Write the structure tokens for this entry.
Amino acid sequence: MADHVSSTIVIKAQPAAVLAVIADISRYPDWSDAIQSAEVIETTPAGLPAKARFQAKTTFGKEDYALVYDWAGPNSVTWTMLESDRVRSLDGSYTLTDLGDGSTEVIYDLTVELKVPIPGLLRRKAEDKLVESALHDLKTQVER
């Protein structure tokens, strides 16, 4: 069964600046504690990432995975997992809202289903940490 985690953060920047950092996937290892490598393997006609491959360190070890992206709206991006060793499904999104004061609310939604059984409390704690760390790292990078 898949678990859903969601969290929100406010970043002192316009949505376009936040989205630019999100779209610059190849730089994730420079500022994300979890991402060890990231490579865009296909782009959209607009030059945005369409598919990317990652290696991340997780609570349970290294994980290699690939995602496909959908840049459907001007202030959102969604992704779905293409392949992974230990994860059955991984669907996520960033939704950005301009707060009108030069800052942006960012909602990070993530739905994860693992291939291997992990006790619920431990699994949930790792998922919460993943989302909170991703938002904190994003905020730190954008506000530099």
